[in-house]
Structure formats: C-alpha cells, structure tokens
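Q: I have 171 residues here and want to know how they pack in 3D. Can you give me a structure?
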Amino acid sequence: MMADLRKMAGVGAKALMFTILTVSRTGETLGAKPEEFDLENKVWTIPAERMKAARDHRVPLTDEAIAIVKSLIQPGETYVFHNEFGRPLSNATMMKALRTVRDDNPTVHGFRSSFRDWAAEQTDSPREVVEACLAHAVGDAAELAYKRSDFLEKRRAVMNRWSSFAGLGRN
C-alpha cells in the first residue's frame, strides 16, 4: 500500500503519508502552516489552539516527513497542504488518496491505532513515550502536574522506526 501511495503525485497522497509518518490527526496535518516547522531541528510544533488537548505539541520529524514538507512549502502560502486556491485540503482529499490504494473501507485515523498496536507489540518503548507520540496525556492529575518532559528524543527514535516499518522510510 505504501509503495502505491508513494507513487501518487497529488497533495492528498503527500498529506496522507505525512499524517501516517507523524501519527497526527487529520485536522492537525491539514491545518499545518509553514511557520510551525523548524526543519533544521526536525520539529513541527502544533500550537495549542489546533490541538485536541489544547496544549502545544512538538512532533519529531523523520527525514521522509521533512522531504514531504519541503516539497510542498511555497512562499506566500498560508498552509503546507493546500488546494489550488490556497485553502487547506479537505478531509475528503486524503480519504480519496487512501481509498485509491485500499478498497476495504479504511480510515485515516486508523493509522494512529495501527501505530499504537505496533509500538506495543514491536518495540520496548515505554507507554508514556508512545502515548506522547499520539499527543495523549497519561497519568492522574498529580502525575501530570510533575511531568515536564515531552520525551522528544525518545519519540524521535520511535518515529524513525515507525517510518521504516510503515514502508515510508528510506532504510
């Protein structure tokens, strides 16, 4: 499936690949703006107002995710994943790309679940790190009050492995 997706030329396919690589939510990808990306440090910072949990979320970027962003960022455009009118792509655009390569009624959000299962079964990454990849808060109020790390470098290692597993890595 990923090989077929990689062959597709449209922005929808690139948005889908980026979403899979970053295990982000559809809306987070579609609303991505160029200024959110620090490509030198390989980090995408999604502002709190665009996050379900209403807090900034740093996403470690793989080389493949960076290549997708670099191929799409255009001077003067507000969104990375935009249509011909400069507006963000619609959810339907990514779904169309997915259904072009899969005909079993898949969902884009299902890749987040696939990532979670893969990480639990195929890695020894701590639960907190895996959940942080998904931008989930883990623990009770007291635990969350003391947690200061977002495990960025540990998440980077997990995301690089995910990229290779998902067939979107270059390894």
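Q: Anything worth noting?
A: The mean pLDDT is 88. Strands lie at 37-38, 43-46, 57-60.
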